[in-house]
Every structure is written in structure tokens, then in C-alpha cells.
Amino acid sequence: MGIIIFLIVLSFLVFFHELGHFSAAKIFKVKVLTFSIGFGKKIYSFNWLDTDWQISLIPLGGYVKMKGQDDTKPNLVDNSDDSYNTREPWQRIIILLAGPFFNFLLAAILYFIIALIGANALSPTIGKIVPNSVAFKSNLQKNDKIVQINNTKIKTWTKLAELITTSKGALNVYIQRDGKVYKKIISPKIEKSKNIFGEDMQKRLLGISPEFKIIKVHYTFFPAIKYGYKQTVKASKLIFQGVIKLIEGVIPSRQIGGVISIAKIISSASQNGIVALFTVIALVSVNLGVLNLLPIPALDGGHIIFNIYEIIARRKASEKVFMFLTICGWIVLAFLMLLGFYNDITRFF
């Protein structure tokens, strides 16, 4: 059952990505020859809107093939009015950007729905206090719930941590204990900590850690829109940073996951309710959007670079250069896929 859910989710994500390319192509009156979910041999197809819509044998991706577009013939010129190849470079860039944009849009929609249903979050309840920390000296106690800092109401531990690290000077901390609210004036101390990538950093701390109590936070319509936008931006930045840290060697290559990791995560999330499943789908969608924007010639980002070059140089890249870089791109992608698969095998088996 988990494999079926994974394939349905992956196919939906691929469909939404390719729908972005399809929609932008239609806006610029480019004929879309094929809209395929999966690669390889066609197992089912039908024609609609002058496009062959098909499901192919290997359900691990998909593509939209447009008239005049052929990666193996970069200098191909189709002079017909509905050709992708004869569109202005900026129009092609928009068509290429539309796929990742739809991934980000889907993530924002899912986060929006999550916010309306009730987003899972850590309660701002203290679980542990570091000995001799400012929290310890201020007589904060385990199970104290921080309900307000200065003039800001606190609903989640994430908001609490954000306010502590970004604020300046002493804080008016309001805690709820035994049904009563107490005010404490506490000055956070700048101490060593580690970021999400395990790097050393300095930040303002109280010396507390959360009690791992999950709560539901419900949002009304417009705050839910804001929540969806912020979560999508946050996830996108985190993934971009992760890619950079991976290139820099901060994140070891053994942490790269492949199809098996994604399948297991989606399968596990599906067993923990709709909110967990939507959260994972949103994260995977953002991942697809970010990864497709990488400047690797075989991906949307690589094609965007070629079009930017055409705008600047006022000519297309030579066929030899295009082919060489595209082949290099496929080699890089194949290596990453094999590495992810190897890591999955050693991790799970």
C-alpha cells in the first residue's frame, strides 16, 4: 500500500510540475506535442487540446515535449508559428520557470490547507532547563508554558525561539504556571550553538529546551495564506542552503537520499494522518522546484542558463557545447541518483 501511495504522490507532483510548463507554453501559443507522466514505453494515451497525454512505463518522472524543442538538436529551427524554438529567449525562460513555480505554488496551497485544518507544532512548554543558565537563574521551571514575550503572544516553540534569537536587550517573558501567569525580566545570553547543518554559531539563548508536546494551531483564511507563503519560502531557503552545504562538504554525501528514502517517508507520513502527509508532499514539491532550478544542463535551470547566454551573446550556444554540457549534466544526475540509491540500500538494508 505504501508503494502505491508513493507512486500516486510522485505522479501527482510530476503532473503539477509539467502542468506549469504546459500552461506557460499555451500562453505563448507553443504547441505541446506530448504530456507524459513517466518515461519509456507508452502504456496509455489520449489526445486532448491537440496534445497527446500519456502514462509511460517507468513512473519516476515525466516530461512535456513542445514543437521545435529537441535537446539533441539545439540548433534546430522550426519556423512555424507554434514552435518553442522560435520564441524569444525570455519567453522560453518563463516556460522553463513555470514548472518549478508550480511546485512552489503547490507547496503553498498545501501549507495553506494545513493551516486551516490545524498545523502541527511544538508547544512553547519548557521541558528542560540548562543548569546555571539565565533561565535557571530566573527561576523558570520545567512545564512552565511561555505565553508571551514583550508584546507578542506565543503559540509555538518555533515562534518563541525566533523571538529570543532576533530580539535585543532584556525580554519581558510571561509564563503560565499552575493556572497563573507570571512576568519575568530575562536577558538572553549569547552562547555557542549549532545550526541545522551542525555548524557552530553564536546566538541569544535562555538555556531552555522544549517538552516534546505536539499541539494543533488553527489559522483563519488570510493568516493561513501568510502561513503557506512563509512555510514555502522557509523550506525553499533551507533546501537551497542544504545544496550549498553539500557542495561545500558541510553535509556528508552519505546523507543524500534517493527514491527509496522518499518512498519510505511518504509511506510513513500517510499512516500519521492527512496533515503529516500534506506536509511531506509540500516538502518534496519544494525539493523538486529547487532541484530543477539548479544550473545543470539537463534540468530547467540549465536550459535557463542557455537562454540567458543567448540574450547576452545574441546567439545560441554552439551545438557541440550544448551537447557536451548536456551529456555532463546527465552524468551528474545519474551519479547523484546512483549515490542516493546506494545510500538508501546501505541505510535501510
Q: Can you offer a commentary on this structure?
A:
It is a single chain. With 349 residues, the chain is α+β, with helices and mostly antiparallel strands. The protein has two domains: 2-118 and 232-348, no CATH class; 120-217, PDZ domain (Pdz3 Domain). Helix content is 49%, strand content 23%. It has helices at residues 2-27, 89-117, 134-137, 157-166, 221-248, 259-270, 274-292, 300-313, 319-348; strands at 32-48, 51-66, 119-122, 126-129, 145-149, 152-153, 171-177, 180-186, 189-194, 200-205, 208-210, 214-217. The strands form five sheets. The chain has a four-stranded antiparallel beta sheet with strand order 6-5-7-8, covered by helices on one side. Strands 1-2 form a two-stranded antiparallel ribbon. A hairpin with a 2-residue loop joins β1 and β2 (51-66). α2 (89-117) packs antiparallel against α7, α5 (221-248) crosses α7 and α6 runs antiparallel to α7 (274-292). The chain is elongated, with a radius of gyration of 25 Å. The two termini are 20 Å apart. 28% of the residues are buried. The model has no long low-confidence stretch (mean pLDDT 90).
Draw up the topology in text.
Layout: H1 2-27, E1 32-48, E2 51-66, H2 89-117, E3 119-122, E4 126-129, H3 134-137, E5 145-149, E6 152-153, H4 157-166, E7 171-177, E8 180-186, E9 189-194, E10 200-205, E11 208-210, E12 214-217, H5 221-248, H6 259-270, H7 274-292, H8 300-313, H9 319-348
Antiparallel strand pairs: 1-2, 3-12, 4-11, 5-6, 5-7, 7-8, 9-10
Helix pairs in contact: 1-2, 1-6, 2-5, 2-7, 2-8, 5-7, 6-7
